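$ fold --in a.seq
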Amino acid sequence: MKYRLMVALLTSLFALGAQARDTELHLSIDEAMASTDAKAKLDSGVKFFFANQKTPAIEKSFGEDSTNKKTNAFGKSDEEACRWAFLSAMIQLQNRARQLGADAVVDIESFYKRDAEKSATDYECHAGAVLAGVALKGRFVKLAAKRAEAAAPADASTPTDKGKKSGSRKRH
């Protein structure tokens, strides 16, 4: 009888300890994007716009996609692990944009467990004892060219110092 009671007690203790911690954090997008790692790994050729941030005119849309990245949180603070997971999610969005021929990802929102949370300032991360995870969703687009660039002809010649056009030739 004592043996069964002891086994039941130990089983209960292990079951309580096995429940995973799932701490929800809301961390600064600006701080994560300003990190040395983000600056080194995110290409300026793909622009990112969160939630309802104003974007330049959009020329073409390629649809939307989501990412769900996890990172090892063991031995790291929740914030540090979350920054790594966020950066991994941003790199995945960047790579998908490149694959599609997009130059921007717009309307980026947290999408943890398919629960959309829009914020232009914070992202949602869930941290546990072993893993931290960030899920993001965004739309991939090609931004419209600036009007000044679009209006200028590709082969326009410009006047030189003496008033002659650089494209003109002297005939003999």
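$ fold --in b.seq
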Amino acid sequence: MPSAAGTVLDIAGRYAIVNGSSPAKQYVGDRGVHSDPQPIVIRSVTAASVRGTKSWTPGSGNGFVTAEDLHIRPPPTPHPPHTLSN
């Protein structure tokens, strides 16, 4: 995961949710796809859980949650490396 440090929030099956601390972001990784997993979801740190292929986060109001199917989500587009020129 692209964070210097972090805390595992939840793991279920092949998916893991990690709260990174530097930068403070939440990463969802697919542990079954890569030997060095890159996150398939990067978002602000929030309450979250993963069950099966779904990531659950707070919804739009009290008592509501939102499910996102991780199995059909494409990985984020990687950014090209920065180069310094003289």
